[in-house]
Amino acid sequence: MIKGRRVLFLCTANLARSQMTEALLKHHASEYFDVLSAGTAPKKSLYERLKH
Length: 52
Description:
This protein is of the alpha+beta class. Helices cover 35% and strands 27% of the residues. The chain has one domain (5-42). The chain has two helices and two strands, in the order E-H-E-H. Strand 1 (5-11), helix 1 (17-29) and strand 2 form a beta-alpha-beta unit. The protein is elongated, with a radius of gyration of 13 Å.
């Protein structure tokens, strides 16, 4: 089947929520969707935020 839809999960840092939802949709419906995640102000790692 040809993938017909693109889905972008967008959040602020792209550290947890959008990556988790991307992984879930890829796992359950990757044959139907092209799935990506991104952040409006992406961080390099979760640990960078924990330092503050």
